[in-house]
Write a structure and sequence with these properties.
- By secondary structure, this protein is mainly alpha-helical.
- It is built from twelve helices and three strands.
- It folds into two domains: 1-74, no CATH class; 81-283, no CATH class.
- The protein has helices at residues 2-16, 18-28, 37-42, 46-71, 88-112, 123-160, 164-176, 182-187, 191-209, 213-229, 253-274, 279-283; strands at residues 117-119, 230-232, 243-245.
- Strands 1-3-2 form a three-stranded mixed beta sheet.
- Helix 7 packs antiparallel against helix 9 (191-209) and helix 9 packs parallel to helix 11 (253-274).
- Helix content is 71%, strand content 3%.
């Protein structure tokens, strides 16, 4: 049932890609001679490009809702939290904490290495970006959390009858789906360690907190602040952000700091705030 449900969600995601496919085909028969889809994509207006890239997630969200309602006969809440209702305070807390960390890191790096950045702010273009990002990026990040830390985590739990295997499997799949991102081409397969590590971090947070609210807030903050503050010419998202990173692509210290410093500190903060206990039994328990 979970395999069938996953397949249906993928079908809806593919349907959501049709507008982007149509625009790329139009570019191909126009003035652009390149057959590389990425070249054709980059020729599209950045705001339109972002909008088209986010539409499939909205379609996938509809697919997931239908799968839960019609296939599993369950409410969406059942893959979000073990609480009686979604704890919005948890979402906003994680969002604010990671937004603050991200902004401080970007601003700090800008003052330390201003030559690595190019000012890109244009009010009219940024205003359109802001509307698109605020409306659609939370849909994208929420869908990923609903699927990986919610739907698939529960599916693998039923299969393996423990908590550590679903955590590992969802993190590996989450990282693997980034395999064809432009970042991998520029930085090498080492970047997958960051994606898998982020999946593990979000999964641990979900298991310990009995819900994906904290993961929802963190993921939305990560993608939204990045889209608005700084992008580069080699990342998956190309936006009319305030800054453009023009430095040479590298597996910078910020990735290592995230995995080895910020993520553990965030887990400790959340543990203290929400009174997590029994880490060993929760993370390696058998059902």
């Amino acid at each position: 049932m979970f395999l069938l449900g996953s397949f249906i969600v993928i079908i809806f995601n593919v349907i959501g890609q049709l507008p982007l496919t149509f625009v790329i085909i139009q570019e191909r028969v126009g003035e652009i001679s390149s057959q590389d889809p990425m070249d054709l994509l980059r020729n599209i207006d950045k705001n339109l490009q972002l909008f088209l890239l986010l539409i499939p997630f909205a379609a996938g969200f509809i697919g997931l809702w239908l799968v839960l309602k019609k296939l599993h006969l369950r409410p969406l809440l059942s893959i979000v939290t073990a609480r009686k209702a979604i704890d919005w305070r948890r979402i906003f807390f994680a969002f604010l904490v990671w937004t603050l960390v991200t902004v401080l890191l970007v601003v700090g790096d800008y003052f330390i290495s201003p030559e690595s950045y190019e000012w890109n702010f244009t009010l009219s273009k940024f205003a359109i970006l802001f509307i698109i990002a605020v409306l659609f990026i939370p849909i994208q990040t929420s869908l990923e959390e609903f699927i990986f830390r919610g739907y698939l985590m529960q599916g693998f739990s039923g299969l393996f009858k423990n908590s550590w295997a679903p955590l590992l499997m969802t993190s590996l799949i989450f990282g693997g789906l980034h395999l064809f991102n432009p970042e991998v081409e520029k930085l090498g397969y080492g970047i997958l360690v960051y994606y898998i590590g982020t999946g593990l971090f979000l999964g641990i947070m979900t298991i310990m907190d009995d819900g994906i609210e904290l993961a929802l807030g963190f993921h939305a903050a990560n993608n939204l602040t990045t889209a608005l503050l700084v992008t580069s010419s080699w990342t998956a998202f190309q936006t009319e952000s305030v800054l453009i990173d023009i430095s040479e692509p590298s597996l910078g210290p910020e990735l290592i700091l995230s995995l080895l410093l910020f993520y553990p500190l965030l887990l400790l903060l959340m543990s203290y705030k929400y009174g997590w206990s029994n880490w060993k039994s929760k993370l390696i328990s058998k059902f």
